Amino acid sequence: MTVNSNNSSLNLSNLSAVKGETQDVSISTVLLILNIIINGMTCPFTVILNALVIVVVKKRPRLQNNANILLACLAVTDAFEGLTAQSSFALSNTCLVLGINNSAIAHFHELCFGLLSTCSCLHLMLVVFERLVAIKFPFRYPYIVTTRNIKLAVSFCWIYSTWWLFARLYLVDEGNARLQFLMTAHIVLPCVVFVLSSYAILYFETRRHQRKIKTQQLPKQEKENFIRETKTLKTTALVVCAVLLCLLPEAVYLLLKVRGMQTTETTLSFLGATFVMLNSLINPLVYSWRQKEMRKFVFSPNQCN
């Protein structure tokens, strides 16, 4: 009787384990298919919309200010992310569902995703820094934010992102989750801290300017400049909020991975990567929504000529 009861309990545990594995497999398959659909459908729009933003800024002299030039540089990284990382992610998941070897495609996606995501974070810091200088130090702005300095800063973003990717993939042990987390955190954490602190400074500075306009008779030109700078600041704030929200699932996944929680690793990994890449589609929509002239030419490209 004891042997039979032990056998029955073993059979029940084996059956529950099989059911759990089957459930995990089905959930993973559904997630893979959803990722294929989402990334496959949004990938062309990501590339086209960001390419249109770049073309519009290049062809329209009225849009060629420093803020829009930096947004166009960010659009370059977003366009490449849609063209390479997003498309390879959809293709890799398709191969995984069909049971085809996808190691080469997955490695290509990892390279592109790591490089372009890091570069986007650094570009975002440049965009926020430009707004910080424009509102906090308006008289020094022409000497700090110059065409030469923008080119140097953007070049540094690409060079540093390439070095970071090389170090993370080839100098850090793949099984060392904590060190890989620190490699990622040393990019994301300073970006988040810098962006949030900059917007805290900009908020108080904007409030100070608003009180000054109400209490003093300022020149009309100064009022118009402040209104224009504030509108650009709001556009940047929306871009920043979109980035932070899209980074949230990836941040949760990395934290759980460091703590050794493997049960939801696959789910959050797919979800995090998809949200990060979808940010590349959201950014050009924000630019177009906030700027009437850009919206006109992005959605009516024939008028760019």
UniProtKB/TrEMBL annotation:
The cellular location(s) given in this protein's UniProt record come to: Cell membrane
User: According to its UniProt record, what is one Pfam family this protein matches?
Assistant: 7tm_1
Superkingdom, natural source: Eukaryota
Parts forming coiled coils: none
The record ties this protein, via InterPro entries, to: GPCR_Rhodpsn, GPCR_Rhodpsn_7TM, TAAR
* Primary localisation category: membrane
Q: Where is the G-protein coupled receptors family 1 profile domain?
A: 49-287
- Which GO terms fall under molecular function for this chain's record? G protein-coupled receptor activity
Residues of the signal sequence? none
Any idea what this protein is called?
Adenosine receptor A3
To which species is this protein native? Acropora cervicornis (Staghorn coral)
Organismal lineage = Eukaryota, Metazoa, Cnidaria, Anthozoa, Hexacorallia
